[in-house]
Backbone:
């Protein structure tokens, strides 16, 4: 169970980040319906924006649940190993930042489908800019979390090797 | 520029402002609970402090977002301005957390 959670957490996190990247690209390419011929293409673009934004939110919530459960139930043992290792900063700085800043990314992920669903990104420059900024913030913070998670995992190994 | 091209929906405006407030509150609550042990103890008495922290932030975002979406000003919010607010709040919230734990 513990190992499964450790695999699910970064996997759903990366998938959520990729979905946010998908939304970013779709928002850049959002275009108004100009003719009957382009109607289908635009509708598909809006549909993809909706799917991408909802998947971002769902996958980020899955990341919260898997990582949160592991953190609350199993992390204490790893924390003790890290604090006694040569890399105590992996907990005292990286894990502390990661566990608290994640809430900001989670909020942005839930906000994304609200913005996409209630606005026409092809016609509304403000909504398009808002979508681009939200998805960019999700992508950048998720990349930072993935890096921090890798260092925290390595710190456990360093502690065990010592 | 036509305002209708930049004004976002009331839901998007309300929840974006709520997100700005929740993100800043997230950093402030972290500072408070890590600096004031009785607050951390009170949160631990309810459940794991991280779970309590998350529930507080989520409730602030959802409840405040719902309330703000119904306000009249939410119909006149510029999406570009909201994007700037969100960007500043997230960057400041992040810098606040990084700086705090580096100095702790």
Residues:
């Amino acid at each position: 169970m513990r190992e499964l959670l450790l695999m699910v957490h970064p996997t759903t996190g990366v998938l959520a980040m990729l979905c946010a990247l998908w939304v970013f690209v779709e928002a850049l390419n959002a275009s108004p319906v100009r003719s009957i011929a382009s109607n289908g293409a635009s509708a598909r673009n809006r549909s993809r924006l909706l799917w991408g934004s909802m998947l971002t939110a769902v996958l980020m919530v899955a990341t919260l649940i898997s990582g949160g459960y592991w953190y609350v139930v199993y992390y204490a043992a790893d924390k003790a190993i890290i604090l006694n290792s040569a890399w105590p900063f992996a907990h005292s700085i990286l894990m502390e930042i990661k566990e608290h800043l994640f809430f900001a990314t989670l909020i942005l992920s839930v906000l994304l489908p609200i913005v996409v669903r209630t606005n026409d990104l092809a016609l509304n420059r403000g909504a398009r800019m808002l979508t681009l900024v939200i998805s960019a913030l999700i992508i950048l913070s998720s990349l930072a979390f993935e890096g921090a998670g890798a260092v925290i995992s390595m710190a456990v190994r360093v502690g065990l090797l010592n | 520029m036509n305002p209708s091209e930049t004004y976002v929906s009331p839901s998007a405006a309300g929840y974006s402002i709520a997100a700005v407030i929740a993100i800043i509150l997230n950093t402030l609550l972290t500072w408070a609970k890590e600096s004031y042990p009785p607050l951390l103890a009170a949160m631990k008495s309810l459940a794991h402090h991280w779970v309590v922290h998350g529930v507080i932030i989520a409730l602030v975002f959802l409840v405040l977002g719902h309330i703000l979406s119904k306000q009249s000003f939410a119909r006149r919010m510029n999406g570009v301005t909201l994007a700037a607010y969100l960007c500043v709040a997230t960057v400041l919230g992040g810098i606040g957390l990084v700086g705090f734990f580096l100095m702790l």
Observations:
- Chain A has five helices and no strands.
- Residues 50 and 133 of chain A are 16 Å apart (CA to CA).
